[in-house]
Write a structure and sequence with these properties.
15-stranded mixed sheet; mainly beta; 37% strand; 8 helices
């Protein structure tokens, strides 16, 4: 099959397939490695080939049995109903003037019989066999296991992680379960193939949609080593190289289910399964006659065309053309995930805080509750143990433990939240001024701190781009929110202008993200361990003295902004009544590392900062561009549907997936993807095409 095909169905100037009616022959074989055997008793009833999104290819053949004489026989004889042919391969070919053209291949599934009765020579009737095309094979192959690279071996495991999903936390659909690649290279028989298993040692790569489709066909479908059919990709499969989706997996799903997600008609693509001399080809096609570009990405046009001029022949039974704007939109938005920001909040007494940022981390508890906590039981005669036991009540949990940004926080002088341009790239603008009304007021009311940072353990984020620091032996995990406690500098303890910092965990204090604030909750025992200068041991009885002042805390957190990574394409003059199509790509992410973010401490306990300029840690805008190009190709233009029927059986199976170029009597030209070809011998032989019927 060539990528380029110039065909004129009616004019017949350059027709590579027989275009005149041909007789059909039916062939069978029990196993793929067997030779085809012509079975003249079987007659074609109907057969169809379709794009995968349109359903299964099917074929029905029949034979008469009873006391009959076939045209090639010299005398009548008794013919009996055949036994079970389930699983046999069936091929239909049309015999032309110079060659035979296979038009349909599949496996027999059903056997039905229309019985006429019995006579002296035994029962008689018509036996009918129904077969389904190779897409049915893909539908019946369940995928509940996955192949992994382990050192130099390939191992089969009894579960399937999502394609490109994070695999190191239970809820991979959570917004803070960071997207990552989980593909590894593997050498098999001297050739590079791809399996699961991307990690620190086998390289962590993202699957492209093409690589994953090839992985499925090679590991779950291909039977060439057992004398069965081979499976491979063909057609415009290269367009899948620019897609690297995140696809969640169920406990089990079929190969066809996964391919439908990898080759999405909503993105202007589809496929049809053809047969070749070795087996089957999943033939990828784009559905547009024009190449559509957005940004740096282009969805190529379908180069394979077939032309129909409806007024040049009387061979047509019917030719119907319908144009509709029902699926058209003048405004399209491709929506990624909400922008993720990583930044630092600073206690009021942190002397090394960047200018203007001290006091962006404050306590979040009621003063009356603090007073009650300090007083303990209220009985001055009680022991310190008794007071501390009283202070362990759940209702005191926020006191000296919950710290977050002020309500009127200005997002560290507006440096935390980037403003993206129409291509999804950060600009020099800020959200200060008029833009605050659109996004910030809502954001101030709906706050949530993510349970992980968009920072991975084992990397140095003081440089751009971040580099591996050599500390990690195992795989890189995303870091949780980080809190450091400031105190006197170790080398110069009497210098009030410098401080040394220690991770809160070093004091046995756990750190948790806040679900309703931008900040952290500490888990110290007792609470006032963090309340130096705020809790007097001389005034309030206790057995534990405070260790540090919470106003010297530094917290690095991550949160989602009130807007998302998105691309918008809009025709001039578009109105809401013209429709707005939103296409979500939730796993497309934008991660922003705000200026002067604390990312660790050095050996002297001094904070390491990310630098004075904010920078992008991840931007999936390019992934959205190809999605947008595909969506535009499918939804921005009127849709034309064609239904054409011709006399006789014509060898047109390879037309499925090509573009039907229709030129009507008025000279108007339409390009429509051919979705179905059907052959029918009941009530007179005919061949029909359907084009543009994909929803």
């Amino acid at each position: 099959m060539a990528d380029e095909t110039a065909v004129t169905i009616i004019g017949r100037e350059s027709q590579p397939y027989p275009s005149r009616p041909c007789p059909a022959i039916v062939e069978l074989k029990a196993a793929w490695a067997d030779d085809w055997v012509i079975v003249p008793e079987l007659e074609l009833v109907t057969a169809s080939v379709a794009l995968a999104s349109q359903g299964l290819d099917s074929c029905t053949v029949s034979r008469r049995y009873g006391y009959i004489k076939h045209p090639w026989e010299s005398a009548f004889s008794a013919k009996f109903a055949w036994g079970n042919l389930a699983g046999w391969w069936l091929r239909i070919s049309l015999v032309g003037e110079e060659s035979t053209t296979p038009i349909w291949i599949g496996r027999i599934s059903d056997d039905s019989r229309h019985m006429h009765g019995s006579a002296a020579h035994g029962p008689s009737g018509r036996q009918q066999f129904t077969a389904y095309g190779p897409l049915q094979i893909l539908r019946k192959i369940g995928v509940s296991q996955s192949w992994w690279r382990s050192n130099s071996d390939a191992n089969l495991l009894d579960w399937v992680p999502g394609m490109n999903e994070c695999t190191d936390r239970a809820n991979v659909t959570a917004p803070d379960a960071r997207r990552r690649g989980n593909r590894a290279r593997y050498m098999l028989d001297g050739e590079t193939t791809y399996l699961y298993g991307g990690d620190k040692f086998s390289n962590n790569y993202e699957w492209t949609n093409r690589e994953y489709a090839e992985y499925l066909l090679a590991n779950f479908c291909d039977e060439s080593d057992d004398d069965g059919p081979a499976w491979k990709l063909g057609g415009q499969a290269d367009v899948l190289k620019d897609l690297a989706d995140t696809i969640p997996m169920q406990k089990t799903q079929s190969v066809a289910d996964i391919l439908r997600k990898l080759i999405s008609r909503e993105r202007g693509m589809d496929y049809v399964v053809f047969a070749d001399e070795d087996g089957f080809v999943v033939w990828v096609v784009t559905l547009s006659a024009e190449a559509y570009s957005f940004g740096e990405k282009t969805l190529p046009a379908n180069p394979r065309r077939v032309q129909l001029t409806t007024d040049q022949t009387t061979d047509w039974i019917s030719a119907d053309i319908v144009t509709s704007d029902d699926h058209g939109y003048k405004k399209v938005r491709v929506l990624g995930g909400r922008v993720v920001v990583c930044c630092t909040l600073w206690g009021a007494e942190v002397v090394v805080a960047p200018e203007g940022l001290a006091g962006t981390l404050i306590g979040k508890w009621r003063s009356s509750l603090e007073t009650e906590y300090q007083q303990g039981t209220g009985d001055s005669d009680d022991t310190g143990d008794a007071h501390d036991d009283y202070r362990r009540q759940d209702r005191f949990r926020p006191v000296y433990q919950v710290f977050a940004a002020p309500y009127a926080w200005d997002f560290n002088e507006w440096t935390c939240i980037p403003v993206l341009d129409e291509s999804g790239q950060p600009t020099d603008e800020t959200l200060a001024g008029e833009l605050t009304e659109e996004t910030v007021d809502y954001q101030r009311s709906v706050r949530k701190t993510l349970s992980t940072l968009p920072l991975r353990e084992g990397f140095d984020y003081t440089v751009d781009p971040p580099v591996e620091d050599g500390t990690m032996y195992c795989d890189f995990a995303f870091l949780p929110p980080a809190v450091w406690v400031g105190g006197a500098d170790r080398a110069d303890p009497f210098n009030d202008e410098i401080q040394a910092f220690t991770p809160a965990e070093a004091y046995g204090i756990n750190v948790h993200a806040l679900a309703t604030e931008w900040g952290v909750r500490l888990e110290a025992h007792p609470n006032h361990l963090t309340a130096q200068n705020h809790f007097s041991c001389e005034t309030y009885a206790t057995n534990t003295a405070p260790l540090f002042d919470y106003e010297n805390l530094v917290a690095t957190i991550a949160f989602e902004t009130g807007y998302r990574l998105k691309l918008v394409a809009e025709l001039e003059g578009a109105l809401p009544s013209d429709g707005v199509l939103d296409v979500p790509v939730d796993d497309a992410e934008f991660w922003w590392l705000a200026p002067n973010t604390a990312v660790g401490v050095d050996s002297a306990g001094h904070l390491k900062l990310s630098g004075e300029t904010g920078r992008v840690l991840r931007n999936d805008a390019e992934r959205l561009e190809l999605v947008m190009a595909g969506v535009i190709s499918r939804y921005r233009a009127s849709r034309t549907r064609a239904s054409v029927a011709a006399k006789g059986l014509i060898a047109w199976p390879l037309l499925v997936g090509q573009l039907l170029t229709v030129v009507d009597t008025g000279g108007q030209t339409s390009h429509i993807p051919i979705t179905h070809v059907t052959w029918n011998q009941s009530g007179g032989a005919s061949t029909s095409l359907k084009a543009g019927f994909a929803q």
